[in-house]
Amino acid sequence: MSDIRHSVLADIRGALSKKAPDEERAKAVAERLGGRPTGIIPKRGQLKQNERVELFAEMAQKVHSSVTRVSDYDEIPGCIGNYLREHNLPAELIMGADRRLSKADWSLEKNLTIKKGPSDGNDLVGVSHAKAGIAETGTLLMASGSENPTTINFLADHHVVVIAAKDIKGDMESAWGSLNKKDGNVVMPRAVNFITGPSRSGDIEQKLLLGAHGPRALKIIIVG
Amino acid sequence: MSENTNPKVGLFVTCLVDLFRPNVGFSAVELLEAAGCDVDVPRAQTCCGQPAYNSGDKADTKEIAKQVLDAFADYDFVVAPSGSCAAMIKKHYPEVFEDEPEMLAKFKALSDKTYELISFLTDVMFITQTPGEFKGSVTYHDSCSGLRELGVKEQPRKLLKNTGVEIREMNDSEVCCGFGGTFCVKYSDISNAMVSKKTQNIDDTGADMLVAGDMGCLMNMAGKLKRQGSKTEVRHVAEVLAGKLDTKPISGN
Amino acid sequence: MELTSHNLKSNVKDALGNEQLQKALSNVPKGFIDKRAKAAAALDEFEELRDKGREIKDHTLANLDLYLEAYEQKVIENGGHVHWAKTADDARRIALEICQKHNAKTVTKGKSMITEEVELNEHLLENGIEPVETDLGEYIIQLRNEKPSHIIAPAIHLNQGQIEEDFRRVHTHLEEDRDMSEPETLLAEAREVLRKRYFEADVGFTGANFLVAETGSSVIVTNEGNGDLTQTLGKVHVVMASIEKVVPTLADCSQILRILARSATGQDMSVYTTFSTGPKREKDPDGPKEYHVILLDNGRSDMLGTEFEEMLRCIRCGACINHCPVYHSIGGHAYGSIYPGPMGSVLTPSLAGVEKAGTLPNASTFCGRCESVCPMRIPLPKMMRHWREKEFEQHLQPKAARYGLAIWAYFAKRPKLYRALVSFAMPALSVLGGTRKRISSLPLASGWTKHRELPAPEGRTFMQAWDQREALKQEAN
Predict the structure, then answer these.
(1) Which one is the CATH code of A43-223: 1.20.1600.10, 3.90.1260.10, 3.40.50.2300, 3.40.50.10420?
(2) Which positions in chain A touch C286 (Cβ < 8 Å)?
(3) Distance from first CA to last CA of chain B, Å, rounded?
């Protein structure tokens, strides 16, 4: 196996070394990986905070997400309760151990059964908290972990995602900044899911169908 | 007598115009002369070399390119009534000589002075009005090389409008007609499928005449239209702009 | 890689005569072209981002060995395994070994062209392991035992009715009176059937749109969510990716993502863009226990430093295919390679050899529409021409074409001789056109006259007429 590794790398090096010396190339690579230069950031998302939240909501709705704004975490249980009733869904949901979600006053929705943990595929409604949002495209950044299990993002029929207005950034580059850092480097969770609308497919005659394998509906609740 | 300051233009006739449609060549001469150019036709020209170039025959391409270089050495401009041939000289000759710095410099100079006819008239000579007058309706096909390699799009439409014609845009005017040089013979079935879609789009406009800036595309589309029994006349844009419409349309009425 | 590219001409005949295919193909331009144009126009920086994308990939390719090493190191730091494969055989062997180590019975698969390239499914089946394609389009063609006809829309050659027939044939649990006449009902059925398969699978295979050297992450970009279910629910996640998928940093990846979806489907972003970094961690409630990456060369390193290097910038968006009038006419299968259209006509000869796939770069009019929409600004026509040069050098073109070209070139290089010939021939040909000014059939020109009239020459050549005009001028003076 290491022979193959050696031969692949040697073949590549053989072709590349002719064009520039290896030391020069190593320097260029170290600079790029160390400096991580930012490229072109589209103007579209470069707005004041409130306008950015509005753009986020507009872009999310364009890709078939539904969006509600609330002012406080304690409004979330009622908001979700209404959503379940409107869609004739049973009063059941699953979510992870996210602290902000847990702190909301769920006693306001007395009939609601809340399961905690990852999804086993039998949940109609899953609730997650986003790490960040991207106004440019109406995208959510979801980080894996016990707080917000990845399975909830994909297995629930209805995915409800809560996001704090202050976490809505203009662009993807800024959204990366929401992740934890160690020694100046981004610490990647096992999975980072950028989600832009509910699951869809165009594989049959190019017709847009929602709810392919993932959620059929994506509900975003912006807090603040 | 004051010194003649008219630009000296060498007409690159193109092989298809030379062989099949001299009227396009004379139309080009008339348009250029009306624009104030002194036009000459160098004798030592045959073809721009695309058949060789697109068949992977680089050696013959180079020889033909050098022939063109020499034949047009003494002119201020080289003008061709074809986007495809002009692009060959302007864009592709320098590519062919990429690895020969001395020749490359010469071909870059040739490239700089080479133009497709209509864009030369509008973008270099700033012509807005041409001698021709035509009261019918036309639909214009954007030939690929002219459009994508040389940016010929609005120029012919502007000049056509000023002759009095009504332009009826077809669907997918920017989509290839399926000519592609030897492609239309080597892959005649694919080419036929492509040109059939094109003639459908042409027919849908109900225009009296189809015009374009390249003889290859025109012969392909005219050949198909006539095989299908269409009454649409087919002409090179230069013929309409020059008003030289007494010659029968391409592939007849 | 199984190829029928040498049969292009007969493939084309079949394709053109296939009514179902022709009907399905009419969806291609309708579906993709306007959407891409709108998405590109809506982003002011789109053209600039194309330049940026090219620059990022060129820089990466110039340092590919170093970025692969940096990437490998990060994958290992994150608890993943990296396997190197020089050939398709290597990749298949490694994939099978991983499956066998985990006693896998079934594996799920996210849509991946690279596993198509190495024919992973066939290899797993031969070894008693059932691969389950989970992308709707891939699932459909797996039912039909077909190859994808498009790199991002594998079942685009099919119509609803055909898919319904396949579902009824294979999903024997379906009651006869159940209405399956709408795409929605077919999707619902596939969703239900596949849901179970994700949980049963021992191993989940995905490809990768990008590999990020900075973090050791693999990235998949999808709309359905099947790729994510595949890589999250399988006990083991195996990423198979070719070496040119690496990009330096998250910032670089973010740049290219902006042009990928817009070029592919006209979306600003695909629904799911997922960065996977290693296996399940200590406190994670979900995710695969093992994370493997198989890095495949399979001919790519041979392209470096050659006239085909730029092809390695390709991000497999399919824009060149979506805009290709040849593809619109014949569909993907006729190309006889899993990589159809312009990108395939450049890549397939690189992977399989020009002697096997040399017909592909010839089946183009060089209309240039592919290059005009390629987000990575790959000069596709130029590279197809390079393949024709290789063919010419190796005398691989058909004899008739070679001799024809040689005779033509002989005259084209000798203006006086040429002049003498055409001054005689064109007036003669003109006579054949008669008053109709066209010729309906002509020996040696049947390639032309089979489908269209040959416009008759006016008569004398331009040069003959010009000489006369000049002579008259002289006389007048």
Answers:
(1) 3.40.50.10420
(2) 118, 144, 149-151
(3) 48
